[in-house]
Amino acid sequence: MEEIVNIQQQFFKQGHTRDVDFRKEQLRKIKKLLNTYEDDIFDALFADLKKPVFETYETELLILKHEIDHLLSNLSSWASPTKVSGEFFNFPSQNYIHPQPYGVSLVIGAWNYPLQLSLNPALSSIAAGNTTIIKPSEHASHTSRLVTNMINENFEAGFLHAIEGDAEVTQSLLDQPLDYIFFTGSTTVGKKIMHAAAKQLTPLTLELGGKSPAIVDQSADIATAAKRICWGKFINAGQTCVSPDYVYVHKSLKKTFLQHLKEYVTEFYGDDPSQSPDYARIINRNHFSRITGLLEDQSEVIGGQYNEEDLYIEPTILPRADWNHSVMQEEIFGPLLPVLPFADLDDVITTINSHSRPLALYLFSTDSDNQEKIINEIPFGGGCINDTVAHLANLNLPFGGIGNSGFGQYHGKSGFDEFSHQKSIMKKSGWPQIPLRYPPYEGNLKWLKKFTDLL
């Protein structure tokens, strides 16, 4: 680990990555590799998660290619110094903000979208001019191996390098003198990453998770709400950090909502989702056991079939869940959907605000007052009105959490800014000299106050 970090430090000092054209060339190279390795990517993600080819392309490859194209189109302007206005007390002066790379960055990926969540932050790091070490998740072992081979066989280790391994390997990397850390994963591990970063005062971004609610009020198009919640929840078998973790639906609509949910599960995945080519599997047995354990205190389950050998858990609706149940005590990160009734939207807001701040929130409503109420009164990372998950696809929208769901943002310019130090520069000439600011100060204060009052 020490050797790799040292190699990257030396490469960075040589100044190659400060050249915007160099950065663009590397981004184009990654896009070309995504095309070259496309079939291998499909195979690796199927081996890890039985992820359908369409989902792999839509949620992994397409997002990465879109990000690269966006970076290539805008990088020259983002990387250029930005002139800002000056102030009277420093007249005359010219003032600029220079975005500059930190140096060696470490990107720690996640297993649920093991290609995208390893490479997407790395794209931002590269665009900002850093050298980058990628640590893919060992839990998605086939994709981790593919990412490592794809990177290490095609890039200089001093510029971009991938390292496989477990938590000990990650800790060894964190012990090195890094310049920036980007982590995607659980809140529990995120706290450990932050503790390690604090030892060396290394800046970092934490993209974590949490219980992201969906709310369906009386004004909602109930069929559309059910369809889009069903899609957002069960894509990747519920193993999505921004999937709806639970749903609050107005009590007058709950019965109809549940009926629509059941219909859409069948429409999407057939009568037996275990036979559907469009439904993924759980990542490993530990995660499988944790999710199925959440069903134990449920008095009513719609779906609920599972097969440990196949790591299959059926899309499952929990119509009688409440906050006393274990399923509401932690992020589910699987295909279980608790549905809770409500009568008063203010009560929903109070309850959500009494728990950790969620990464995402989804409101289904045509009532503009309710929309503004939810946006203004509940702190959350980001979300949608009348949809789920889709806000991630807009690169003009920063993506990131708040509180226990993380901090820092990326995607598009937000990612470039996250991996850049904003260096402030004031340029002045030797004239004029303003004696007011220099000692001795006797008599200067009254003039300073007069100038201040005039301004």
From TrEMBL:
Molecular function terms from GO: aldehyde dehydrogenase (NAD+) activity
Keywords attached to this entry: NAD, Oxidoreductase
GO biological process: aldehyde metabolic process
Active site: E207, C241
Domain Aldehyde dehydrogenase: 5-425
Record PROSITE patterns: ALDEHYDE_DEHYDR_GLU (PS00687)
CDD domains, alphabetized: ALDH_YwdH-P39616 (cd07136)
InterPro entries (UniProt xref): Ald_DH/histidinol_DH, Ald_DH_C, Ald_DH_CS_GLU, Ald_DH_N, Aldehyde_DH_dom, Aldehyde_DH_NAD(P)
Gene Ontology, cellular component aspect: cytoplasm
PANTHER family for the chain: ALDEHYDE DEHYDROGENASE (PTHR43570), ALDEHYDE DEHYDROGENASE TYPE III, ISOFORM Q (PTHR43570:SF16)
Family: Belongs to the aldehyde dehydrogenase family.
Protein name: Aldehyde dehydrogenase
Species classification: Bacteria, Pseudomonadati, Balneolota, Balneolia, Balneolales
